[in-house]
Design a protein that fits this description.
Bound molecules: xanthosine-5'-monophosphate
Largest sheet: 5 strands, parallel
Shape: globular
Helix content: 25-40%
Number of helices: 14
Structural class: alpha/beta
Distance between the termini: 47 Å
Order of helices and strands: EHEHEEEHEHHEHEHEHHEHEHHHEEEEHE
Strand content: 15-25%
Strand order of the largest sheet: 9-8-7-10-11
Amino acid sequence: MKQDMILILDLGSKENAKIAREVRALGVYSEIHPHDITLAEVQALPNVKGIILNGGPNRVVDGAEIDVSKEIYNCDLPVLLVDHKGDAPWPEDDEVWKQALSNFIFGMCGAEANWNMENFIADQIELIRRQVGDKKVLLALSGGVDSSVVAALLIKAIGKQLTCVHVNHGLLRKGEPEQVVQVFRHEMDANLVYVDAVDRFLDKLAGVADPEQKRKIIGGEFIRVFEEEARKLEGISFLGQGTIYPDIIESGTKTVKAVKSHHNVGGLPEDLDFELVEPLKMLFKDEVRACGKALGLPDNMVYRQPFPGPGLGVRCLGAITRDRLEAVRESDAILREEFAKNGLEGKVWQYFTAIPDIKSVGVRDGKRADEWPVIIRAVNTVDAMTATVEDVPFALLQHITDRITHEVKGVNRVLFDLTPKPTGTIEWE
Ligand code: XMP
């Protein structure tokens, strides 16, 4: 194994992720593990050079103070205690803390600053091969950042022992299913099962206007389609998952309560008895992107903006019809093309179009015509809990309006949504 590791044991502090990032910023790989890890488990982890314990006010769980085992305190690894009590350094005092952290990692632990993507990938390839052996792995490949990066990594580690399943539910953006086939089947030579489930999803969604009901149908149907494909394949022992570290944080740990349950953690029926392979589960989003880039994935896959699981289904407002779905897909493609051309692609956090289920009168070819409006949304945010509206140049909005109303069938007006979150949400449904 190529990288040294600093272990952070979770005593309930919300600072753990921040400390992990700070250790990595110093060039040393770090992982966070539960407080009740045994010494044998620690010793089974590769190249652990030292342990950081961070307690703080959340250390008391159900009335009892939690702690790591005595055998860990007594083992020969250096331990740094970070707490409100005593003289130990506290991460809020930035300079003192950074110096103390650096002294600990390089001085006491003798770790080397050898954390980089090449070493991470090399180590993960070794770990994946060790875990999987000569068995087979299945992966649901949506084409989003996380599943694409995990696919690329698994292909590098185990090649044709991996089978990727891409379910096209008809709610992806223009060109996305084609790109998944191009990159993974043709360029990376992966086993890729492409499932055209467009009619199946759209039939199930016909006439359903309630957003939550739409989400349930899309999520539920996705699992059913994937499960059917999984049952067709023989001898699969493992399920690859693009779980990343923020998913785990949000789903809660033994000591930190869940913020929300996450779709990547759990989900498939229990009788599909797979062991999980989750090589990205300790990476933050920017590190996942760097990993994808190092594995040779195209920029527009690695740096893509967030896209909701139910896809265009929640942007074709109300009951989905094929013609309005096509209009939202085409207008979204124009918006993305123009944002890319005008240097806004990497600058704006999320931008898309939505189409409401109303028509208004307009003029087309000299005649009155009832057609739909399209809404443009372009927002910036740090955590998606609040958002501000991007100040898109007026001339660009006019140009996009001109293109959408002339190139997209059935659309005669374009509106720009000026509402921050709150009071709006980012999506319209
Ligand atoms: P809202 O609309 O709640 O969106 O302000 C916040 C962020 O979450 C995304 N979003 C979803 N993502 N499944 C997802 O995977 C969903 O059902 C869903 N709804 C909203 C939204 O695109 C934004 O980035």
